[in-house]
Amino acid sequence: MLHSESPLFRTMDIAQAARKIKEIVPKDITILAATKARAVAEIEKAINAGITDIGENYVQEAETKYPLLKGKARLHLIGHLQKNKAKLAVDLFDTIQTIGSLELATEVNRRAKNAGKVILVLIEINSGKEQNKDGIHPEEVLGLAKGIAAMPNLLLRGLMTMAPYSPDPENARPFFRKTKQLFDQLKSLNLPNTAIDTLSMGMSDTYRIAIEEGATMVRIGSGIFGERKII
Ligand SMILES: *Cc1c(COP(=O)(O)O)cnc(C)c1O
User: Fold this and answer.
1) Strand partners, 77
2) Is 158 exposed, middle or buried (0-12, 13-18, 19+ CB in 10 A)?
3) Ligand 1 site: residues with CB under 6 angstroms?
4) Is the dihedral of CA 98, 104, 107, 109 positive or negative?
5) What confidence score (pLDDT) does residue 30 get?
6) Can you list the residues of the chain whose pLDDT is less than 70?
7) Probe target for ligand 1 pocket from 99, 124, 219, 224, with the most ligand atoms within 8 Å of CB
């Protein structure tokens, strides 16, 4: 396996690992580098190797790092967003992948309107219906999508999910499959003021399975940057 645990990836530097993943992943799938706890200099190495999209988990961490990266890559929020950070998130990110409620969508739309911006958003699905996990349950997705479609300063692009953690990546497959079904349903609704083209799922250990199940974007952290540092 060519994920971060494999001896091959371990001996690579960041640029080599980024190029290797770009070789493996089909060209029409976007590779997002998950950059939590990574220094700006490390992130720049990945960008220089051809990574076009980067994602942070924490708004405050992005606040210190992103001014140095602005214009060099598309910037995504892939971690939980608290309502009281919506204004800052609107200032920092092009895309917010973690919209999980109408309340949060409403607040981000309000802040985006004040800033004169349109923010790209994904709905985060709690595909495993896990307790204490962010995201909306699968049954509620289409209702939330209709709500977002009516918000002029949000542009809904699709769905994001994190499958429940398991040491066996194959266990993620049914959750990816379920999310792909929802994505297809969402697309077929043809809601006005949406552009449904992004299905963000799969990480270093599961991206191959996610791609087999229809992901259009995979989020790779340790597979590019090496073993995750303590955060
Ligand atoms: C950290 C993270 C990733 C990447 O995880 P790796 O296992 O390091 O590839 C992807 N998505 C989210 C939401 C993350 O927090």
Assistant:
1) 56, 96
2) buried
3) 34, 36, 57, 78-79, 162, 203-204, 219-223, 228
4) positive
5) 98
6) 1-11, 228-231
7) 219
Domain 7-225 belongs to what architecture?
Alpha-Beta Barrel (3.20)
| In the chain, where the domains are located | 7-225
CA distance linking residue 73 with residue 86, whole number of Å: 21
Pocket probe mutation, ligand 1, options 6, 78, 125, 159, max atoms within 8 Å of Cβ: 78
**pLDDT score recorded for residue 7:** 55
Contacts of 51 (CB under 8 A, 6+ apart): 18, 22, 31, 32, 33, 73, 224
Give the atom of ligand 1 at the shortest distance from the alpha carbon of 97. Answer: 13
The pLDDT assigned to 108 comes to 98
DSSP string, 119-158: EEEEEEE-TT--TT--SB-GGGHHHHHHHHHT-TTEEEEE
Taking CA atoms, 35 is separated from 69, 169, 222, in Å, by 12, 21, 9
pLDDT recorded at residue 8: 55
**pTM of this prediction?**
0.94
Q: What per-residue confidence (pLDDT) applies to 53?
A: 98
Nearest protein CA to atom 2 of ligand 1, as residue: 34
- Return the pLDDT at 9: 60
Q: Are the CB atoms for 9 and 220 separated by under 8 Å?
A: no
